[in-house]
Amino acid sequence: MGILDMNFFHFIGIKKKPKAPWKKFYQKKHMNIIVPNKNIYEYFYDHAQSYLDNTAIEYFGTKISYKKFLEDIDNASKCFKSLGVRKGDIVSIISANVPEALISFYALNKIGAICNMLHPLLSENEIKDILSKYSTAVVVALDITYSKLKNIISDTEVYKTIIISAKDSMGFLMRLGYDVTQGYKVEKPYNDNNYIFWKDFIKLSEGFEIKEKIVTGKDFPAAILQSGGSTGKPKGIVLSNGNFNSATIQAKIALADLDSDDVILGIMPIFHGFGLEVSINDAFCVGAKVVLIPTFKASEFHKLLIKYKPSVLVGVPTLFEAMTNNSKMEGVKLNRLKYVIAGGDSFNKAKVNKINDFLHSHGAKTNFTQGFGMTEAVAAVSFDLKYASRPGSVGIPWPGTYVKIVKPATDEEVPYGTDGEICISGPTVMLGYYNDEKETNDALHIHKDGNIWLHSGDIGVMDKDGFITYKQRLKRMIISSGYNVYPSQIEEVLEKHPAVLDSSVIGVPHPYKVEVAKAYIVLKKGFHDNEKLRSELKDLCEKNLAKYSIPKEWEFRKSLPKTIVGKVDFKKLQEENMRIRENEK
């Protein structure tokens, strides 16, 4: 099975305290958070004892108490052990937000396995490459992925796939409705011993006992979340138990009003650090109720708000754009909201003001707040606190986290008010990238102060009080609906087609998704732009790219602009595209 055996950086505390002008906004004890030597499950279990009768998860009318949730986790942990999953094994979870995926996450953590969280919309080739890279032998997969898995699973080391469904935790009538409207379309495995449905998997716990306690602790790897490298190739961000628990402790301090009466819409996906930690794990550790939403439909957002009356909204720009532009929101009351938190990308002041006006006109007594984060630091790095806010900024660093602005690609700190690269140090910084020493060393540097600093690749500026303003990405990355899209990865796929001579991909504005990919293509001599060719290119992308990475706009050219050294000048394409759009207004 896929056992993690690489060496990592480990957080051993801040050796020399960096400058922290924001410390005046926190109590002294909060600047030195103490992280217990526990895994994620143990930390959650200990807190859950105080609210066992509370609802942990609501899912299409089904309510799961914390007591029942813990029982389900315990049973599932036995089932995974019965399949041979050991401490240090990597188990991939390919799923949207359904209870079975969360039960699996905590159950695997309990027995010391490492959860590799994957987007169910990844292409079959992307899934194959990732499963092979991590030598995954056991997979938990949403049934909609079976049509892809069946084509590639024999090329991997996977010997058992647990099939879960969006309907598994639904009540009888809801399941019936799901089958009639959607379920019948989903292809499923039958009479294949390599696959096991959840209802049969969970029976494996009967009569099975785990004979000895499995000890891991805060420094042991807990999860792998997928990202992309500077080359655009997928890489695995390895996060420890301590990384997650530190983030939860920080959230309890920074979001001090969170409590067991709160209702959080679990819209952000669990394969995303922001969704898994902020929307799910943080909520569970204060006893709040998480309403799991496996598929978000902007047109029905108003129904969710009316039905569940959430006190916390966590999302990416797409979600908040959908909220403010939904004509059916008229008359919807938002007076229960305590926090409205955005991540994944930043808003300009005009958009922030627009959202705040919308919230206040619907009865909310709170403001829209932004943060800055990276999956490499679990999720949140800084946050615009209720009691320490500066319009247009992404707030101050979370307690226990240190941030400084440096001259890019150096450890030379720049003066306050000067643009530079954002660097992060603290207990949420990742262990490293899985089996990728080069990328790890590019991202994590030991500076002159003896501390490990994560170089973000993002440009920002810090003022004398510690408030950070995000400026732009150093990388060529596109963020579409909160997902990272890598132009070089798309270009590599496009250039597999025999008709394509050259290509360049840029991000272009989109009213809801913030950005989408636009492909500029130069064809080889003898080939011409026509419907057949476009169809082939789209099919190629669908086969090899996640859905959110597929270009939404296409332009064919005789040539592409080049830099003085002969590289495609994508910046010139961006400028040209912006001019055209401005002229069209």
SSE arrangement:
Layout: H1 40-48, E1 55-59, E2 62-65, H2 66-82, E3 90-94, H3 99-110, E4 114-118, H4 124-133, E5 138-142, H5 146-152, E6 160-164, H6 172-181, E7 195-197, H7 198-201, E8 221-228, E9 234-240, H8 241-254, E10 263-266, H9 273-284, E11 289-292, H10 301-308, E12 312-315, H11 317-325, E13 339-342, H12 349-361, E14 368-373, E15 380-383, E16 396-397, E17 402-406, E18 420-425, E19 432-433, H13 437-443, E20 444-446, E21 452-462, E22 468-473, E23 478-480, E24 483-485, H14 487-494, E25 500-510, E26 514-523, H15 531-544, E27 553-557, H16 570-584
Parallel strand pairs: 1-11, 3-4, 3-5, 4-8, 5-6, 6-7, 10-11, 12-13, 13-14, 26-27
Antiparallel strand pairs: 1-2, 8-9, 9-19, 14-15, 15-16, 17-18, 18-21, 20-21, 21-22, 23-24, 25-26
Description:
The protein has three domains: about 20-30 and about 255-475, Rossmann fold (3-Layer(aba) Sandwich), CATH 3.40.50; about 40-45 and about 55-215, Rossmann fold, CATH 3.40.50.980; about 480-585, ANL, C-terminal domain (GMP Synthetase, Chain A, domain 3), CATH 3.30.300.30. It is about 30% helix and about 25% strand. An eight-stranded mixed beta sheet has the order 7-6-5-3-4-8-9-19, sandwiched between helices. It is globular, with a radius of gyration of 24 Å.
Summarize the structure.
By secondary structure, the protein is α/β, with parallel strands linked by helices.
Strand order of the largest sheet: 7-6-5-3-4-8-9-19
Helical percent range? Answer: 25-40%
What share of the residues does DSSP label as strand, in percent? 15-25%
CATH architecture tag of the largest domain? 3-Layer(aba) Sandwich
User: Whole-number radius of gyration?
Assistant: 24 Å
Major sheet, described briefly? 8 strands, mixed
Give the overall form.
globular
Mean pLDDT across the residues is: 90
Instruction: Kindly state the number of beta strands.
Output: 27
User: Can you tell me the CATH topology of the largest domain?
Assistant: Rossmann fold
Low confidence ranges: none
Structural class: alpha/beta
Termini separation (Å)? Answer: 56 Å
- CATH class type of the largest domain: Alpha Beta
CATH superfamily of the largest domain: ANL, N-terminal domain
Count of helical stretches: 16
Tell me the count of domains: 3
